[in-house]
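hiii so um. not sure if this is the right channel but i have a protein structure encoded as tokens and i wanna go backwards to a sequence. like what aa goes where. can anyone help
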């Protein structure tokens, strides 16, 4: 019997979907070093030119006209109208996938985004493949573009979301509420005094972490300006991700701010930065918020993208694990209130810990390794 070949599929390099697939890969390797794993950008593999065009359109729509995405996202009428087009694309991609499957011979396929999940589901139908297909949801509320007959299992964030999938017609035995996978390194203990010293920060002051996902989106500069009006003394870590324009703009104005600020670009030590923080101001991506939950880190949510992030916001605020900020210019009032009422901050932290699934990556990896061809 050969060691298992596991195919991980995602789309978009700088994305939560990719972070999730990398987290699963790390967790799998931590359990078994003998696995053969291929972690692949499915969109780039099948349609590299289309990938560039679609990513550019998506980014433009999100930044300039988010209401369009709000209308399109999980809209039953829109879904119905594009289903034929989507199925045609999936059929067109099936021969490309067959070459990949013939070469790599996967024993299990795991998709962290709905697009490749649909492609593989169509491939299984076209070629009568029995390879187990696992869809891993990376947001807290499922959307209808995940629904395919040939998906063997869905991994979702919680028991509550399991019920929502069941309501959409997914058999209960196919649903596994194991959580959203994030880097298992987040479970590694952090030397907080050493990290704070490295940042040039005081261990006596509270620390606020500000980030806008990997691409540094959202009104981060407005938030920093508002926080400078807070009377309480604290220090700030600002992560701008791949947003070089934002980084340059903030760096130019750093001396104007009264608060102590550590400005960073794209980083690989979010685990450390979350560990030393008392509060995070962030966009509500599924991976980022799952990481914050694992730390019991209270969240202030800013400018959620319509659709998946808006849904994440609803879930997190209903669970009392986050507060939504409607007016970024007035975030200073919320932060002032929290820092002068530590019990409120503590209650949010406890809510985070209550719904957190810190071992999600490991649990998902173990489940994947339990599967085999039928």
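sure thing!! here u go:
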């Amino acid at each position: 019997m050969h060691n298992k070949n596991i195919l991980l599929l995602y789309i978009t390099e700088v994305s939560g979907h990719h972070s999730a697939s990398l987290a699963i890969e790390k967790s799998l390797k931590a359990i078994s070093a003998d696995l053969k794993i291929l972690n692949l950008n499915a969109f780039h593999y099948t349609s590299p030119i289309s990938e560039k065009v679609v990513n550019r359109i998506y980014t433009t729509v999100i930044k300039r006209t988010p209401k369009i995405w709000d209308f399109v996202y999980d809209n039953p009428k829109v879904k119905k109208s594009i289903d034929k087009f989507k199925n045609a694309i999936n059929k067109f991609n099936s021969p490309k996938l067959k070459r990949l499957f013939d070469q790599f011979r996967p024993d299990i396929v795991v998709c962290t985004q709905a697009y490749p999940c649909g492609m593989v589901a169509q491939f299984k139908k076209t070629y009568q493949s029995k390879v187990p297909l696992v869809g891993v949801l990376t947001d807290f509320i499922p959307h209808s573009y995940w629904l395919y007959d040939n998906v063997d299992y869905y991994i979702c964030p919680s028991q509550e979301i399991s019920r929502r999938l069941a309501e959409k017609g997914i058999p209960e035995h196919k649903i596994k509420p194991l959580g959203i996978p994030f880097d298992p390194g987040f479970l590694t203990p952090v030397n907080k005094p050493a990290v704070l010293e490295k940042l040039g920060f005081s261990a006596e002051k509270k620390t606020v972490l500000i980030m806008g996902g990997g691409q540094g989106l959202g009104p981060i500069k407005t938030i920093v300006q508002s926080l400078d009006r807070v009377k309480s003394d604290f220090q700030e870590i600002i992560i701008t991700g791949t947003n070089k324009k934002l980084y340059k703009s903030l760096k130019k104005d750093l001396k104007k701010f009264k608060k102590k600020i550590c400005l960073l670009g794209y980083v690989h030590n979010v685990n450390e930065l979350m560990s030393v923080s008392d509060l995070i101001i962030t966009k509500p991506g599924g991976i980022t918020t799952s990481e914050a939950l694992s730390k019991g880190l209270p969240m202030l949510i800013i400018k959620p993208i319509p659709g998946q992030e808006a849904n994440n916001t609803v879930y997190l605020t209903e669970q009392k694990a986050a507060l939504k900020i409607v007016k970024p210019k007035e975030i200073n009032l919320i932060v002032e209130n929290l820092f002068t009422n530590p019990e409120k901050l503590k209650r949010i932290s406890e809510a985070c810990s209550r719904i957190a699934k810190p071992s999600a990556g490991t649990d998902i990896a173990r489940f994947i390794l339990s599967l085999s061809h039928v």
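oh and The mean pLDDT is 88.
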